[in-house]
Amino acid sequence: EAGAVAELVVTAQKREQNLQDVPVVVTTLPQRQLQDAGVRDIKDLQVLAPGLSVTSSTSEAQTSARIRGVGTIGDNPGLESSVGTVVDGVYRARSGVAFGDLGELERVEILKGPQGTLFGKNTSAGVINVLTKGPSFDFEANGELTFGNYDAWGVAGSVTGPIVEDKLAGRLYAARRKRDGFADVHVGAGPRTRTDDTDQDYYTVRGQLLVTPTSDINIRLLADYSDRDEHCCVNF
Fold first, then answer.
1. Which residues pair with 184 in a beta bridge?
2. Burial, 218: exposed, middle or buried (Cβ in 10 Å; 0-12, 13-18, 19+)?
3. Residue 224, φ and ψ in degrees, nearest 5
4. Which of 62, 133, 196, 198 has the lowest tally of Cβ within 10 angstroms?
5. Whole-prediction pTM value?
6. What residues in the chain have per-residue pLDDT under 70?
7. 146-178: pLDDT as tens digits
8. 166 near 200, Cβ under 8 Å?
9. What is the pLDDT, as a whole number, of residue 10?
10. Are 138 and 170 in contact (CB under 8 A)?
């Protein structure tokens, strides 16, 4: 119908619903918008989600998210953020674990305000709900190669397709990104020898299986691994 608004389906209440039927303030970022904006991790979401702030203090592992100015700030790695991060339905209890390369995304939902009823007590400020792209029974492969200043480069690729026709499908994603630090550090007579900061050096691997024993049952099995060796957050 001309002039009609397409239905936007979200899982802000852990079930698929039309966004207009959800009594929660939700910022929904679909796949195309995330791709066009070059979103690769949760820090990149700040350019698209009003009211979301993501900062690091002493290292990338001590990264904190705030929604509407509310969040948990501190250098203790044992702190659980009051902005919960959920990736494919799994709660990431430590912020440093949640801030890896997100890979291929279906959509991201920013839920604002307390979400303890459905997401647990550690979501008093809100939830970042990430849904990655699942396996497909149609074969597909793609790759990405990026270059930038400060000797930045990145390579990523994925492949998906059927393993057992109509019963088992898989998806494998891998990425490697590296960049020199853009903040110059004058070390003086101190023990530090590194003269730059805010560099980037990490890789991510994610594997998925989709099992469909019947037409009414879908089971997704996911495993991911990330390794980061970066320097961050020198005082300016």
1. 196
2. exposed
3. -140, 155
4. 196
5. 0.85
6. 1-6, 74-75, 95, 235-236
7. 999 999 999 999 999 999 998 999 999 999 999
8. no
9. 86
10. no
Six token digits for residue 28: 């929904």
Q: How far apart are the first and last CA of the chain?
A: 55
Tokens representing 215 are 């037409």
- The span from the CA of 191 to the CA of 217, in Å, is 58
DSSP string, the chain: -TTPPPP-EE-TTSS-EEGGG--SEEEEEEHHHHHHTT--SGGGGGGTSTTEEEEESSSTTSEEEEETTEE---S-TTPPPSEEEEETTEEE-SHHHH-S---SEEEEEEEES--HHHH-TT-SSEEEEEEEPPP-SS-EEEEEEEEETTTEEEEEEEEEEEEETTTEEEEEEEEEEEE---EE---TTSS----EES-EEEEEEEEEEEEEEETTEEEEEEEEEEEE--------
Q: Cα torsion for 164, 217, 221, 85, to the nearest 10°?
A: 150
Q: What is the pLDDT of residue 143?
A: 93
